[in-house]
Structures are given as structure tokens and as C-alpha cells.
Design a protein that fits this description.
heterotrimer; A alpha+beta (about 425); B alpha+beta (about 450); C mainly alpha (about 450); A: about 425 residues; alpha+beta; Uridine Diphospho-n-acetylenolpyruvylglucosamine Reductase, domain 2; Uridine Diphospho-n-acetylenolpyruvylglucosamine Reductase, domain 3; Vanillyl-alcohol Oxidase, Chain A, domain 3; 3 domains; 8-stranded antiparallel β-sheet; 5-stranded antiparallel β-sheet; 19 strands; about 35% helix; globular; B: about 450 residues; about 20% strand
Chain lengths: ~425, ~450, ~450
């Protein structure tokens, strides 16, 4: 056992520390940690963080390890702290439409438990459903439901956060309206494990929709963009509006480009919304899916990124979807046309987000540099129009070279000051935000 | 006027914004010594009324240079004394910055200056079939800048959420005059959610000079019900039953007998019966089809819990009448008692009945008149204490009772303010809800935005 | 604080209970035309009430420049009253504040002179005769045109006088009349049928009093004549007691409460003598003032009850016509917009009646005026005394009127008619300013009802 793992073992109950080859599968963006810890309580998390600060070990918080290759690679990874053993629901009062759970609870388990009371948390980030609540909140990940139902920041009411130096902060609360003091909670949502470890989270819940329907339109990409824009401005509550353009190799297999309109309302209202949608579209739907089939379709949307080597998020205003699509087409040259599906495009139409999902990148001499050059060119183009390009995942070398995020602008000194407050020794996920 | 606010400084301010937009006459400053909470009176050293981001930046830089604190003020409708400045400080008021830069129906966005009145934004969006969702009771007067500072709520946040959900981007001026652009719907911002943490910072971080907000399509239809109960608890239970049935009304509001009587005595009398213990307003909105079913379900819940009478608004006029009474309750209290303390706290919805009982018991014990108005759907209570300031004994009892009410709410898992903010008024209660470490982190967060300590000093933190 | 200040404050202190109802909520701010333009809270209803309160509390001297300026700058439009959740009686408080302010610092000479003129019917008649001559000779219009802008008071006065001259009603809608089929006029017996309605027979007054007013009688005789004819056509016999005088509104607004009370007593006695249960007023400002007689004379031992009874009798011309149903005349196919006088809409709460009255005219195209509920800036003598601000407000009103592309703007108050008319003239706009009842009268005339 290495010294670091040994020191941790002395502080934690047996079986909570793992090292060696078993730590290899917890490599974060190819960086293998010296130890992985699985604390079972908040105080154990605090203990680990105090020790790390004292010893200067770098710690990367994780959940179930389903997305360790995502985002900007941290500079160094001594310890991976997984909260996956902290997966209890600690307070659930259905009448309050809120639930408090430990950070390591899987979204699937949470959905199951709330579903028993006819309630749900409308979060559908990309990736497997077993991914944890803390990981979703920490990365502020969202999927097709976000525009209508809200982003993680709109659902989360309170968290317990263990800071870099082991302080336990109860931020926010468990009530839906709360303005008692500065909303520091918001800083932790999307902080990518750089401010602390989320050990407990309270979120709002919603009544489960009585009906679930998806209306599908098909056509060529250009037509679908126009259709999508028209439907997006229809005066009706749409739960999701996704444009799904399959990869080249999927197309040759017969898969068609689709526009999926999801409606989650009472059944009478659903019929009416369908009518508004088809009226606005001026075209008849190609298919309609109800209930389980509709849910299944969107489950597949969540899984679109799985197995991809490169995922790039392009974003502009929703009305600029066609411009974004043109930028996305530029990125197709990064894909190996003979591997996997090629290049998929998937857009959250209402948010103006378009994901470019590349199965496998084209190799060859200097491929990383070439790819970096293409990506930077596209990023420059988008930023010039007020948009952004983010690398959700990709080969470490590439992500390190271009940076997962674009320019953070003049707010960087302010963010640095905030980071210092939560993590004085700078041990939490250093380098996750390259500009800090 | 303190030494810090010299005539030299005010002369420079006049040069920046124009002579007529700086107020220094002590008589004229009296109008600014209170906001919507009259318990505190502090005349500022000066009031300055800039026109745009650039002027704000110059004003702030000048004041920072002279180390004069700045207090932002919108329409002065706030209820926590957050917009008060001492004589050594300057109020920076936003009424001149009242331009709606554009409404963008394609993206359902609007870009505005902070002095735009909440209701005016909805009015401007209406021709496009859109509206701005957060609707605090003072929406006809309060500004979006103030809404951002307080993270304002309103009766419809049960379904639609509060201000932070609708603000997508900000231009912010810090104390030293630096201009930061945060967020924006059309991009993924790198790093921490500074937009999110700025919202609700009560003017302690900086001042928002441009605000990008999301708009929603106007719901196709609404159904409004008014249920009358002979027991306040029954109204609370009807709310729980509605939620348990999986219904999500746009609003669930309860007003108690004392409030009904005050409203009915005012010019906004909405025709509520004055002898019931509680009136519950229930509103559904959305697609016309199916709304009747939801309304009937909710009506059923009310009958089940012992409602004496349930009315349905038959026209838009009747609907507005029901709301008008509710929305103007606060002002109507002016008729009933010389002074009013509007309390604000939130508890988990299921704890409402017991908390209401405890509050009523506290009122009895201190011999005070309490009137309850609350957003029952989200557990946000407004126990209003009616009193006479000139009666010193009563004033002391009001303060005691307030503290006990806060303690009861916190003990029930709630918090000390749901939508009015901490301001000057509730700093003393902050320790009831937050640990020393959390307060320290809040202090540090302020310091990251305002290392000089010049923004709205003495507010929020104990 | 000097002692005269304290003594003056006592006058306002009597209104302490009214002042305390203001809970400082701020809902009145956006309703106030001066706050919306000046952005200073001292120029808002809440700010002005706060200044009054500060006087009562002895914190400021009523002679203070700030108190004088901000109380002076109030239009008195009372747009703040309907939006006040606490029901603060702002108009009443303002009159008291003005009284205090005037005692602390007398008004300028021309205001005092003007008020003095309206105090005596004889003087009023002389001045009005002179004014009519100025108007008829075209000198008023010429003066308004040639005098430099800095002579604001004179220029504005002359422009308003010139604008009181009356519109070319007979031409209204002529362009389009040819294209439209003539709407049927009610049958000749409609008049008697109207009187036959059984339930209302008892309630319907056969005789009503009519306030002739000072300015109205002097410069707007045609409106009074139209009112008389329209009332008659609808079966009301109008009597105008000769003992009546100016209603006292201008005096009250200017803080001369004693002057206002004296005139109120005269009018109460005059109309009591006429033995009528209803007194019809066609000038919004006068109607509001007379509906306020009860409040004004509440402390008068002899007149308190009589004033209260008088207040009950006052109705606007639009109210009485709409309440009892009105006859239909011939079509007037003109595009017309309506501006609500503050003292009808805010002070009397009469919003729909004038619109209904106009809608009853066949083929009249009534277009909504943006900001109709906002003051035009005339506000009695305001347009003259507060030239710059009154001008800015008047100019905005004209912009809104031009936007409607209407041929005429109707508004039921002489002050508003003159102020809007003056600003339309300054802008060179050819839009008639008329009283709504004039349109009804024209419709009746075209229909051969008289």
C-alpha cells in the first residue's frame, strides 16, 4: 500500500480506501489516482479533506465514475473521492414536493423512490441514469427537459458542502423560497468539484405528468431547423424540442433526421398542444409516440454521447440555430468516417445548444494539433457572435490544448478569490478550470 | 454630511450625471430616508440618478476614490430596509434607467435597464404573446433591478419559480467602477455561476445596469377559484390535499379573516365575505383543454376539507378582482392600524398548519393583532403585525413576538425570509439559520465582489 | 424651525390621520406624471406626502424651497388615488398642503389676480368679455405665435385662449360620410317612448340644475348650449340659477381654501334655491370640486350638512345621459379619440360613461388614446405656472394624439381642452379639441332632433 493510501486508511473505517490496480479504473482523464476513497458519511468526507489540505494532496470528487473522462483534465489527481456509498434519502415529505438525499444517490434510484409518490425530478443530463445527483449538480449538466422544467440551479434548494479544508457548509435550505443571505449555493452548482464535495442535496420535485407524448417530424437538416424554430415560438408549453441528426453511417443504415417534440401535460391538454404544434409546423407529424415509447425515445437521447470520443457543445441564441449548424458541419472533418456512427448532431432547440458527437476522431500525423486548430477556429467564430464552444469530453491531450471552456473574461480574479475561500490550499480538482 | 462626502465629490457627480440629477438638499433627502419599511429612517448624504452603465461606472469610480459607500435603490418598495443609506453614503437610484432595450420574441428574451418597472416589461412583451413570470405584489411599481437584488418572488412562483430562474445575464458595475458582463442565454459561461450568486445580493456586490430576462408565452387560459373556510387550518389542509392529488396550480394563496376585513374596508374591496376565517385563492393556468378538470379536482379538495363556499371567477374582470384584493392587502392595512410590520418567512408546506397555530398562540400571548397573508403553495408566510409605534410597550412586544415567530419557522425547517430579503431589518435573525462558517463564506463572497466594502455596507450580514 | 412654521404645521396636523394611512409602499410612483418624468421621489405622491408629514412633525419649515417647489409641481391630477391600496385622500391633503405653502410664501401676482377675478362674478364677466374679444380678433392666436418662448406665461395664456375657440364640428367626418350609408335615426316617437319606461319614471329627474361655471360660461358657451340642448332632447329640463358662481376648484387647488369655501357656500345656496335633486356639471374639474364640497365644508357648522347634500346631487353630463339611457342621433363618421380628464377619471372615478356616450353616436370611430389616463399637463393653471414640465407632459399627450390619426380629440374639461388645444396649435396639428357632449349635440343636430 502506498503511503498516501495508508495514511487515509488509518483515518477511515476499513474498506473505504482502494489503491493500485483497483484505482486504475478511477483514472480521471487518464490520470490514475494514488488512492480512491469511498466515505460513508459527511464527517468522513470532512476528515479526508482536512487531511488532504494538511498534506497538500489533490482531491477530485466523483460519483459512480461514469464520466471521469469529461471536462477539463485536472492538473494532478492524488485522491479520487467517490460519494457513491452515500446514497440514502434522508428526508422525503411528499407533501412538500421536496426531497433531501445524499449526494451519491443515483438519479435512477431517486426517480424510483419519488415515482412511488407520483413525483419526479425533471433532470435528464447526458449519460447513464445511474449517474449521481451530486455529479449532475456539480457539473450543472442538463438535457432536453431543462428549458421548460429548469436547470439544476432551478431545482436545487440546498446542499451540504464539505470545503477543501474540511468545513461543512449548509447552504440554502429545504424550502422553495429562501432569500436569507447571499445565494452562495449557486456558486457550487456547476463548480466541477473545485469548491467542495456535495454530500447532501435538497431539490424541488414536481408531480409526474399524467401523459407523455412525443411528436416526430422528419426531413433534411435545413428543413428541420426551420421547422424547429417555428415550433419553438408556438404559444404552447413544450417539455422538450430536440433536433436529432444521425451520423453519416447511421444514415446509410436508414436512420432519418428527426425533430422530436415532447409534451408532458394532462391528456386533454396534450391533444390540444399537438394540434398547435402541427398547425405551427404547417406539416403533419411523421409519428407520434405515447407513454413508455415517448419516455424510451428520450432515454435514448440521454445515451447519445455514450461511446463517443469527442463531444463538442456549441451554443448561440436559439434563433441562430442554422448558424450553429453550419459551424457544427465544420467539425465533421474531425471524425473518422469509417468508424462507429461518424458525427451525430443533437440540438436542444429552445436553448440554442447543439452537440457535435463524434464516434471516433480521425488519426494521422499531428491529428491533435490539427483538431485543436479546427476547434479553435470554430470557437473564435462563435465567440465573435456572442456564443461559446465547450468540450464536454475528448482526448486529454486535445482538451488540455484547447481548454474545455472558452474565455472566462474579466471575472477571473473574482473567481480566484472565491476559490481561495472554499479551498484555501488549492487541493480540490486543481486545473479543472484552467483559468483559475 | 460627513467629511467623506465633500462638496468636491458632489460637484464631480454633478459633472458626470448633470446638475439636476444629484440631490443634496437635506429637505429633499428626507424622501429617501425610508423604503417600503418605515421602521427605519436614515437620510442619505446624497442621491444620484445616473442614466446608463457608463454613468454608473463613472459615479462609482468617483465614490470609490473618495471612499464613499454606495446604496442602490430602485422604486424603494423593498420591505427590509435594504435601500437605506447613512449620511456618509450616497444612494444611487435607477429610475432614469428605465429603458427596455429590446424585446426579442424569437428567443423569448428581453434586455432591459434596471429601472424598468416589472409590470411595464410584461406590458411590452404582451403584443408578442409573451410575459415576464415573476410577479411580486408590488409589480405595478417595483423595478426589475430591485427584483434582481432581492431575488423577488410573488404569488405565481409555486409553478413558475422566482426571479433567478428568469434572469439569464447581467451587466454589473462593481464599486470601483469596473463593468462585468455575466452569463447570457446564448452561451455557456466558463467558471462559477456569478449571475446566480449576484441575484439576491441586495446591492451588496455591485449594481446591475443591464439585465437579460427570459419571457414565457402567455398561458392560453386561467381558472381562478376562491374557497372560503371557517377554520384557517382547513384551508391549509385543502392546500395539502390539492398538492397530494398531483395538481400544480399556478398559485395557492391564503388570506385570513383580519386581512379580509382590511381589504374589504379599502377601495379595493373584492367582495370577500368578512365573516370567514380564511379565503383560499387557487389559480390554474395553461392550455384551455383540461383546465376545468383541474379546477374541479381542486374544488373537490376544498369541499372535502370543509369549505363553506367555493366561487369561480367567471370573467377576466372577476379574476382580477379576486387578485386585486389579495395583491393590495399590504397597503390596505394602513386603514386598520397606524403601523404595520410585514413579516416574511418560509416553512415546508406540510408544516403550515402547526406553524400557523404557533404564530397565533404567540400573537395571543403578546396581545397583538396579527393578520396572515401567505403564499400557501410554497409555504411562504406573511404574518403581519398591526400596532401603534407611539405605544412603546406595544412596540417592544412586537419585536419580541417577531423574534419568536422567526424561531418557530426556523425550528420547523424553514427560513427567516422567503422573498423580502434581509436588508437592515433581519440581520439579527441571520444566526438563527446560518452557522458561523456559512456566514463567514457569505462575507468572503461579498468580499470577492467588493473587496473595498463600499457596496451597501451594514446590510444582510449580522 | 421658526414659530410661524410650527403654527402653519398645525393646519396640516389636522389631517394627521389621513397622512398616517400612507404606508410608504410606493405603488403610486409610476402613476405620477411628474415622478415618471423627473425621477425624483420628492416629485412623487409618496414623496410629497412625506414632505407634508415632515412639516407636521416639525422637521421642516413649510417656507423651505423644497416644500414649496415639490408641492407646487404636483399637477393635482390624483392619478395616485385609484392605485393607492390604503386609500389615501391625496387630493384633500394636497389642498391643505397648498394652503400651508401659500401662507408661508404668497403666490405670484398673476395667480392672485386671477383667483381674485374668479371670486367675483362681475369681474369674471368683464375679463371674459375682454378675453372673447382677444380671441375673436385673432390677437390671442397671433400673440401665441409671435411672442418669444421665454415669455411663457403670456404665450401659453394666449394660446390656451385661442384654443378655446371651438372646432369645426360640422365638417367632422364629411370626407367619409359620402361613402357610408346613413344610419337610421331613432323613430320620431323614441323621445316619448324613452319617457314611458315605467320603472324609471319615478327616479328619472325631470328638472335638473346646470352649472354654467366661470370659464365654461365665459369661453365655452357653446359647450353649455350643447349640454342644454342634449339634456332637453333627452327629456331633462335644465335650469341655471343666476345666483351661482365659480365652483372654487382653482382656489382650492391653489391653496386658497377660504376662497374656495366662500364660493362653495354661494353655489350651495344657489342650487338649493333652484329646487333640483340633480346638478349636472360638464366640466370635470368643477364636478370634482363640487363632489368635494362635503369634505371642504366638513367643519362649517352651518354648511356641513347642506354641503353633504349638495355633494350627493352632482353628476357629470356623461353620467346622467348614460344612467338613464340616451337617444340616438345621426351618424358622425369621424375618427375621434378620447382623453380622460383626471378630475373625471381619477377624482370622480367616472371612466366608462363618457366612452359609452361617444359609442352611442352612430358610425363614430372611437380610437383608443395611448396614455389616456395620464394628465395632459394642463391641470388648471399648471400649464401656465409650470411651463417647462407642463409643456413636456402636454407635448407627450400631443404625440399620443397624433399617433391615433384622429380628426378630433374629445375631453370633458375646459382646462384640458385649452391646454391640449394650445399644444396642438404649437405643433401645427389640425386636430379639433372638443367636448364629448358637443359630438352628441352634433349627432342630434344632423339627425334633426332639434
Amino acid at each position: 500500500m502506498n503511503a498516501l493510501a495508508a495514511a487515509l486508511s488509518r483515518r477511515l473505517p476499513e474498506g473505504q480506501v482502494v489503491e493500485g490496480f483497483r484505482a486504475e479504473q478511477w483514472a480521471v482523464c487518464d490520470r490514475v489516482p494514488q488512492a480512491v476513497v469511498f466515505p460513508e458519511s459527511e464527517s468522513e468526507v470532512a476528515e479526508v479533506m482536512r487531511l488532504a489540505t494538511q498534506e497538500g494532496w489533490t482531491v477530485v470528487p466523483a460519483g459512480k465514475g461514469t464520466w471521469l473522462h469529461g471536462g477539463q483534465p485536472p492538473g494532478a489527481v492524488d485522491v479520487v473521492l467517490s460519494t457513491m456509498r452515500m446514497d440514502r434519502i434522508t428526508l422525503y415529505e411528499p407533501g412538500d414536493l421536496t426531497v433531501t438525499a445524499e449526494g451519491g444517490i443515483g438519479l435512477d434510484l431517486l426517480a424510483h423512490r419519488c415515482g412511488e409518490h407520483g413525483q419526479w425530478l425533471p433532470l435528464d443530463p447526458p449519460g447513464p441514469r445511474k449517474g449521481t445527483l451530486a455529479a449532475t449538480v456539480s457539473t450543472a449538466s442538463f438535457g432536453p427537459l431543462a428549458y421548460h422544467h429548469g436547470l439544476p440551479k432551478d431545482h436545487v434548494l440546498g446542499v451540504s458542502l464539505v470545503t477543501g479544508d474540511g468545513r461543512v457548509l449548509e447552504l440554502g435550505g429545504r424550502v422553495v423560497k429562501n432569500v436569507a443571505g447571499f445565494d452562495v449555493l449557486k456558486l457550487t452548482i456547476g463548480s466541477w468539484g473545485t469548491l467542495g464535495v456535495l454530500t447532501s442535496i435538497t431539490t424541488r420535485l414536481h408531480p409526474q405528468p399524467p401523459a407523455d407524448r412525443t411528436v416526430l417530424f422528419r426531413g433534411e437538416a435545413g428543413e428541420l431547423v426551420a421547422l424547429a424554430r417555428a415550433i419553438a415560438t408556438a404559444p404552447a408549453p413544450l417539455a422538450a424540442l430536440e433536433m436529432l441528426l444521425p451520423g453519416e453511417r447511421e444514415r446509410s443504415g436508414g436512420t432519418v433526421p428527426l425533430l422530436a417534440v415532447r409534451i408532458l401535460e394532462a391528456s386533454e391538454a396534450t391533444d390540444e398542444i399537438c394540434r398547435i404544434v402541427t398547425d405551427t409546423a404547417g406539416a403533419s407529424a411523421f409519428r407520434q409516440m405515447d407513454g413508455r415509447a415517448s419516455a424510451e425515445l428520450f432515454r435514448n437521447v440521454e445515451a447519445l454521447e455514450s461511446g463517443a470520443e469527442l463531444v463538442v457543445r456549441l451554443r448561440l441564441l436559439p434563433s441562430q440555430l442554422e448558424t450553429v449548424r453550419k459551424h457544427a458541419d465544420t467539425l465533421r472533418e474531425l471524425a473518422d468516417p469509417d468508424e462507429g456512427w461518424g458525427t451525430r448532431l443533437a440540438a436542444h432547440v429552445q436553448c440554442g445548444v447543439l452537440r457535435v458527437i463524434i464516434s471516433r476522431m480521425a488519426r494521422g500525423e499531428g491529428w491533435i494539433d490539427r483538431a485543436a486548430e479546427v476547434i479553435e477556429r470554430v470557437r473564435g467564430g462563435l465567440e465573435a457572435e456572442g456564443g461559446s464552444l465547450t468540450l464536454s469530453q475528448g482526448p486529454s491531450g486535445l482538451v488540455s490544448a484547447v481548454g474545455a471552456w472558452g474565455d472566462a473574461g474579466s471575472a477571473v480574479p473574482l473567481m480566484k478569490a472565491l476559490k481561495r475561500e472554499f479551498d484555501p490550499a488549492g487541493v480540490l480538482s486543481p486545473g479543472r478550470f484552467s483559468f483559475l | 454630511m460627513s467629511a467623506a462626502l465633500s462638496s468636491e465629490v458632489t460637484a464631480d457627480l454633478r459633472t458626470i450625471v448633470g446638475d439636476q440629477w444629484v440631490i443634496t438638499d437635506p429637505v429633499r433627502l428626507l424622501a429617501y430616508e425610508s423604503d417600503g419599511l418605515t421602521a427605519y429612517r436614515r437620510p442619505p448624504g446624497a442621491v444620484v440618478l445616473p442614466a446608463d452603465t457608463d454613468e454608473v461606472s463613472q459615479v462609482m469610480a468617483r465614490l470609490a476614490h473618495a471612499e464613499v459607500p454606495v446604496v442602490p435603490r430602485g422604486a424603494g418598495t423593498g420591505l427590509s430596509g435594504g435601500a437605506l443609506a447613512g449620511s456618509d453614503a450616497v444612494i444611487l437610484a435607477t429610475p432614469r434607467m428605465n429603458r427596455i432595450v429590446h424585446v426579442d420574441p424569437e428567443n423569448r428574451l428581453a434586455l432591459l435597464q434596471p429601472g424598468v418597472i416589472n409590470a411595464d416589461l410584461t406590458e411590452a412583451a404582451r403584443p408578442h404573446g409573451l410575459y415576464y413570470a415573476p410577479d411580486p405584489s408590488s409589480q405595478s411599481a417595483c423595478t426589475i433591478g430591485g427584483n434582481v437584488a432581492e431575488n423577488a418572488g410573488g404569488p405565481h412562483c409555486l409553478k413558475y419559480g422566482v426571479t433567478s430562474r428568469y434572469v439569464t445575464g447581467l451587466t454589473v458595475v462593481l464599486y470601483d467602477g469596473e463593468v462585468l458582463r455575466l452569463g447570457g442565454l446564448g452561451r455557456d459561461s466558463a467558471g462559477y455561476d456569478l449571475t446566480g450568486v449576484f441575484i439576491g445580493s441586495e446591492g451588496c456586490f455591485g449594481i446591475a445596469t443591464e439585465i437579460e430576462v427570459r419571457l414565457l408565452p402567455i398561458p392560453q387560459a386561467t381558472r381562478t377559484l376562491l374557497a372560503m373556510f371557517d377554520r384557517l387550518e382547513d384551508a391549509g389542509e385543502a392546500v395539502s390535499a390539492i398538492v397530494a392529488r398531483g395538481l400544480l396550480p399556478a398559485a395557492l394563496e391564503i388570506i385570513d379573516r383580519e386581512t379580509i376585513q382590511a381589504v374589504e374596508a379599502s377601495i379595493f374591496a373584492a367582495g370577500y365575505p368578512v365573516d370567514v376565517e380564511a379565503a383560499l385563492v387557487i389559480e390554474f393556468d395553461g392550455i384551455e383543454a383540461g383546465l376545468d378538470f383541474e379546477a374541479e379536482e381542486a374544488e373537490g379538495c376544498c369541499w372535502e376539507k370543509g369549505a363553506r363556499e367555493v366561487r369561480r371567477a367567471r370573467s377576466e374582470r372577476e379574476r382580477l378582482g379576486l387578485w386585486k384584493g389579495r395583491k393590495n392587502a399590504f397597503g390596505a392595512f394602513g386603514r386598520v392600524a397606524p403601523d404595520l410590520l410585514v413579516q416574511d418567512a418560509t416553512v415546508p408546506r406540510t408544516r403550515l398548519p402547526e406553524v400557523l397555530r404557533a404564530i397565533s398562540e404567540i400573537g395571543h400571548r403578546y396581545g397583538l393583532r396579527l393578520a396572515n397573508v401567505f403564499h400557501a403553495g410554497d409555504g411562504n408566510l406573511h404574518p403581519n403585525i398591526l400596532f401603534d409605534r407611539t405605544d412603546e410597550d406595544e412596540l417592544a412586544r412586537v419585536e419580541q413576538a417577531s423574534r419568536e415567530i422567526m424561531a418557530v419557522c426556523v425550528a420547523a425547517g424553514g427560513t427567516i425570509t422567503g422573498e423580502h430579503g434581509v436588508g437592515l431589518d433581519k440581520r439579527g435573525y441571520m444566526r438563527l439559520v446560518h452557522s458561523r462558517d456559512v456566514l463567514e463564506v457569505m462575507r468572503a463572497t461579498k468580499k470577492a465582489f467588493d473587496p473595498w466594502g463600499g457596496m451597501n455596507p451594514g446590510k444582510v450580514l449580522p | 424651525m421658526n414659530s410661524p412654521g410650527v403654527a402653519l404645521a398645525d393646519a396640516l396636523s389636522g389631517q394627521r390621520d389621513l397622512l398616517l394611512t400612507c404606508v410608504h409602499c410606493g405603488l403610486c410612483l409610476p402613476a405620477c406624471p411628474t415622478y415618471v418624468r423627473l425621477h425624483d421621489e420628492n416629485d412623487s405622491p409618496r414623496g410629497r406626502l412625506y414632505l407634508m408629514r415632515a412639516v407636521v412633525e416639525g422637521r421642516i419649515d413649510p417656507a423651505a424651497e423644497a416644500f414649496q417647489t415639490h408641492i407646487d409641481r404636483c399637477l393635482g391630477c390624483r392619478a395616485c388615488e385609484p392605485v393607492c391600496p390604503a386609500g389615501v385622500e391625496y387630493g384633500t391633503l394636497l389642498e391643505h398642503a397648498r394652503a400651508v405653502a401659500v401662507t408661508a410664501r404668497p403666490r405670484p401676482w398673476f395667480i392672485r389676480t386671477l383667483l381674485g377675478v374668479f371670486q367675483r362674478p362681475g369681474r369674471t364677466r368683464t375679463v371674459m368679455r375682454l378675453s372673447r374679444w382677444l380671441r375673436a380678433s385673432g390677437l390671442a392666436g397671433l400673440g401665441a405665435w409671435v411672442f418669444p418662448r421665454r415669455w411663457h406665461t403670456l404665450r401659453m395664456g394666449l394660446a390656451m385662449l385661442s384654443a378655446s375657440g371651438g372646432g369645426k364640428l360640422r365638417r367632422l367626418g364629411r370626407r367619409r360620410r359620402a361613402a357610408l350609408p346613413e344610419a337610421p335615426v331613432g323613430p320620431p316617437d323614441a323621445y316619448s317612448a324613452l319617457l314611458d319606461t315605467d320603472e324609471e319614471d319615478e327616479l328619472r329627474p325631470a328638472r335638473v340644475g346646470l352649472l354654467s361655471g366661470c370659464v365654461q360660461a365665459g369661453l365655452f358657451e357653446r359647450v353649455n348650449d350643447a349640454t342644454g340642448r342634449v339634456l332637453k332632447a333627452n327629456g331633462f329640463a335644465a335650469v341655471t340659477p343666476s345666483a351661482q358662481g365659480c365652483c372654487g376648484a382653482l382656489h382650492g387647488h391653489a391653496g386658497d381654501l377660504e376662497g374656495a369655501r366662500a364660493l362653495a357656500r354661494v353655489n350651495i345656496a344657489a342650487f338649493e334655491g333652484a329646487d333640483v335633486e340633480t346638478v349636472v356639471v360638464n366640466a370635470a374639474g368643477c364636478g370634482a370640486a363640487m363632489k368635494g364640497y362635503a369634505q371642504l365644508l366638513a367643519d362649517d357648522a352651518e354648511f356641513a350638512t347642506r354641503a353633504a347634500a349638495m355633494t350627493e346631487k352632482i353628476v357629470d353630463i356623461s353620467e346622467i345621459l348614460v344612467r338613464y339611457g340616451m337617444r340616438q342621433g345621426a351618424s358622425v363618421p369621424a375618427r375621434v379619440t378620447y382623453d380622460a380628464p383626471c378630475h373625471l377619471l381619477h377624482a370622480q372615478g367616472v371612466a366608462e360613461a363618457p366612452l359609452e356616450m361617444l359609442r352611442s353616436i352612430p358610425q363614430l370611430e372611437l380610437v383608443e388614446l395611448n396614455g389616456s389616463a395620464e394628465c395632459c399637463g394642463g391641470a388648471g393653471l399648471y400649464g401656465i405656472t409650470q411651463g417647462e414640465l407642463g409643456g413636456a407632459i402636454g407635448s407627450d399627450k400631443v404625440d399620443a394624439i397624433l399617433e391615433t390619426k384622429a380628426e378630433a380629440v374629445a375631453t370633458g374639461n375646459p382646462g384640458c381642452m385649452m391646454h391640449i388645444g394650445a399644444w396642438l396649435r404649437f405643433r401645427g396639428a389640425r386636430i379639433e379639441t372638443i367636448h364629448p357632449v358637443e359630438l352628441v349635440d352634433e349627432s342630434y343636430r344632423r339627425g334633426g332632433l332639434y
